[in-house]
Prior knowledge:
Blueprint: E1 2-7, E2 10-13, E3 18-26, E4 33-39, E5 46-52, E6 59-60, E7 68-73, E8 78-83, E9 92-99, E10 108-109, E11 113-118
Parallel strand pairs: 2-11
Antiparallel strand pairs: 1-3, 3-8, 4-5, 4-9, 5-6, 7-8, 9-10, 9-11
Amino acid sequence: QVQLVESGGGLVQAGGSLRLSCAASGRIFSSSYMGWFRQAPGKEREFVAGIWWSGGPMDYGDSVKGRFTISRDNAKSTVYLQMNSLKPEDTAVYYCAARSRFSVSYAYWGQGTQVTVSS
Length: 119
């Protein structure tokens, strides 16, 4: 079993920055892939960024490329999402999720953290 706990959300003005954290515990393997997703009211869930625990290239959704950066700290079992140049359209609940390298589905999800960007 894997537990994921997000933190770091809040209210920020447009152009500002936030850093989200996702602390993982339980049987999280080095071969796991960690993703950040977001969902705004009335919209579908959207992939934001992803990274392998073992390293390698990061992946980003088109809407956040050049503004958001995903990183990990294996020693702390934590994945981060640095969000810069925030826009009102970035307002959403942000979720951390984990999947095995053998699956395309995310088996584990955090509870989410709210990010609100005011104009």
